[in-house]
Design goal:
This protein is an alpha/beta fold. It contains 14 helices and 16 strands.
């Protein structure tokens, strides 16, 4: 038996053992009280506050390793934790804790002439497998949302965030322990072996759904190799379209925020489409602001004549840069903008900047991305900003869940049918 086979066998055994423990935990979570889940999350938030120094020390070690590996500044920013960001993670746990319990909700009910009373009731999915890169906060977000929705979860974070994720996971387990819930409800894979990912993707009957959260390479691997159902989360090729009737000052604020607030997140704008009439009226206002902010602007056509821009290459459109880079071109009207987005978009988030209600309505009707916005930054594509407390990812597929995936989206349903001695003729 060669070394590779030995590694695959060990990975499969590890995931099977974790999944069996997770399934036992999921059976308990499915009937856990709302109060116990809430208490677990609040206790985890308090543990995170108490262990802040320990978490930041672990994160510093991950950052040092990332810098040694010469990761890009945007990827290092995704990895970095600060006291402020850590407070935000703890606040997300508290927000999720205080949300209504999504399990047991009666989604619909009706009576039939045959004497049956039928209810459709929300239930947990079971065992989730979450595979993610770089961002250690996902350890808390995914664990919290899984717990809130009555699911057990197996977390496999990127090797670059392994120490940070471990420190955060310890706080989540402490919350479970204090609330009297099974500690196997939130498990973290600590092995760096990539064979573990393959084992998760093949864990049919043990893991109920796989949720990838990362770049195009990770998502492509999951979608091509998984034998377990997947919540699709393609890359965030997000577009902003400045319409002829856009307010120039609103447009300036939104474009700068959409690109520069955090360049390494999936909601960052990667392409700016400018209506030719807006450009004729306001000139290089938007591109000049991006250039002044240090953004590399890859421009097509007439826009490439603006000093400081770089000529765009064909593959710059439809590309997720995750960096301080944006592609841009002129379009003739909203229909040309829509056609461009249909061709190059990933179905994540698009924003139109306009004061024209009819144009905005056309943009919303004729595009089918998971999130469509008007006069708002694409960086709002986030479960926390949608009032979900946090998200486990942005689903770009069309089955089951779409857009920010919060606790409510991590449930399925069952039918409860009641009769009074009813029989079928």
């Amino acid at each position: 038996m060669d070394e590779q086979t030995t590694g695959e066998d060990a990975a499969r055994t590890l995931i099977e053992d974790m999944a069996h423990a997770a399934r036992a935990a999921a059976a308990e979570l499915a009937c856990a009280t709302a109060e116990s889940k809430r208490n677990a999350l609040l206790a985890a938030a308090e543990a995170m506050h108490a262990d802040q120094d320990k978490i930041l020390t672990a994160n510093a070690a991950d950052l040092a390793r990332a810098e040694d590996r010469e990761m890009s500044p945007a990827m290092i920013d995704r990895l970095r934790l600060t006291p402020e960001r850590l407070r935000g993670v703890a606040d997300s746990l508290r927000a999720i804790a205080h949300q209504p319990d999504p399990v047991g909700r009666v989604l619909a009910e009706w009576d039939r002439p045959n004497g049956l009373h039928i209810q459709r009731v929300a239930t947990p999915l079971g065992v989730l497998g979450v595979i993610y890169e770089s961002r250690p906060n996902v350890t808390a977000d995914a664990g919290a949302l899984a717990l809130k929705s009555g699911n057990a979860v197996i977390l496999r974070g990127g090797s670059d965030s392994i120490q940070s994720s471990g420190a955060i996971h310890a706080c989540m387990v402490q919350g479970l322990r204090q609330a009297g819930l099974p500690q196997a409800a939130i498990q973290l894979v600590t092995s760096r072996d990539r064979a573990v990912v393959a084992a998760m993707l093949r864990a049919q009957g043990l893991i109920d759904v796989i949720i990838p959260r990362g770049g195009k390479g990770l998502v492509g691997l999951v979608q091509s190799e998984a034998r377990v159902p997947v919540f699709a989360h393609l890359e965030g090729v997000c577009h902003v379209y400045a319409d002829a009737d856009a307010d120039p000052q609103k447009a300036l604020r939104v474009v700068l925020n959409a690109k520069t607030r955090r360049t390494g997140i999936c909601g960052a704008a990667e392409c700016l489409l400018i209506d030719r009439a807006f450009y004729d009226r306001h000139g290089d206002l938007l591109l000049r602001a991006l250039l002044d902010a240090g953004v590399e602007v890859r421009a097509e056509g007439a826009l490439a004549q603006i000093p400081g821009t770089v000529p765009a290459q064909p593959d710059d459109f439809g590309r997720e840069f995750l960096d301080s880079v944006i592609a841009t071109k002129l379009v003739d009207g909203v229909d040309e903008a829509i056609a461009h987005i249909r061709r190059f978009g990933s179905g994540h988030t698009e924003s139109i900047l306009t004061e024209n209600d009819d144009t905005a309505a056309r943009f919303f009707q004729r595009l089918d991305s998971a999130i469509l916005m008007r006069n708002a930054s694409t960086q709002f594509a986030d479960g926390g900003e949608f009032g979900m407390g946090a998200e486990i990812g942005i689903a770009t597929g069309k089955m089951h869940a779409r857009g920010p995936v919060g606790a409510e989206q991590l449930t399925s349903f069952k039918y409860i049918v009641t009769g009074d001695g009813a029989i079928r003729d």
